[in-house]
Specification:
The chain is of the alpha+beta class and 217 residues long. The protein has helices spanning 25-40, 69-74, 90-94, 124-137, 141-146, 155-170, 173-185, 191-216; strands at 54-56, 61-66, 80-85, 101-106, 114-121. A hairpin with a 4-residue loop joins strand 1 and strand 2. The relative contact order is 0.10.
Length: 217
């Protein structure tokens, strides 16, 4: 069977559990929609299973999408690990569900690509969708960290996990050195000079981010 879900039979396509791949109802629906399009539309679409979310509805729920930390280590894929406990989430605490955490795997570069996410906690099956969408659409971790999340909500645990990226980046020697240099010269600068320096620093960081991103690609 190829990625259009066409089998070796000339007039036979397949989807769902019969594929023996991902035996989830939501994946069967995805495959069925793609198969229907390929049957009736002139242009075929190919199935992509790179982003396959799932959830085990235990108490608390366990949801996952993408790479796990163990898989990344086995395959030699470098990544940053970001964590946020539900014990620090006000909504979870008020509902007596402060156990569990959000765990993210992110590429170490400035792009901050989301490689995988695991959530153990309340409504994990709903919360995993934010990271599924980010992976499908190629959104970096900063897009999730900077987006506005309703307070108080469980989703803020996802945002706070994403914001750990800034904390880890701030500890890198290059960033520490740049901040130290800025603090050293800032008191001696007039207001206009400070603004120009801040603009130049922002431009430099943008240029560095763009070139690192191009290098990664």
């Amino acid at each position: 069977m190829d990625r259009t879900l066409h089998t070796t039979g000339k007039r036979v396509w397949a989807c769902g559990d019969v594929l023996g791949r991902y035996q989830f109802s939501h994946m069967a629906e995805y495959e069925a929609k793609l198969l229907a399009q390929n049957l009736f539309l002139p242009v075929s679409r190919r199935a992509s299973f790179r982003v396959t979310p799932w959830c085990t509805f235990t108490d608390p729920e366990l949801a996952h999408v993408g790479l796990t930390e163990d898989a990344a280590k086995e395959d030699g894929i470098p990544c940053m690990v970001l964590r946020q406990s539900f014990g620090q989430n006000d909504r979870a605490l008020t509902e007596g569900e402060g156990k569990g955490l959000v765990k993210l795997l992110v590429s170490p570069g400035w792009k901050g690509e989301v490689l995988g996410a695991s959530i153990l906690g309340p409504r994990a099956g709903e919360l995993i969708q934010e990271f599924t969408l980010a992976m499908e659409q190629g959104l970096g971790i900063r897009a999730l960290a900077d987006s506005i999340h309703v307070y108080p909500s469980l989703a803020m645990a996802c945002q706070h996990a994403a914001q750990r990226w800034y904390e880890q980046k701030a500890k890198e020697p290059s960033v520490q050195n740049a901040l130290a240099a800025y603090r050293a010269v800032r008191p001696a600068l007039p207001a206009v000079g400070t603004g120009l320096l801040a603009g130049a620093a922002a431009g430099g960081l943008w240029w560095l981010s763009r070139n690192r991103r191009e290098g990664e690609e």
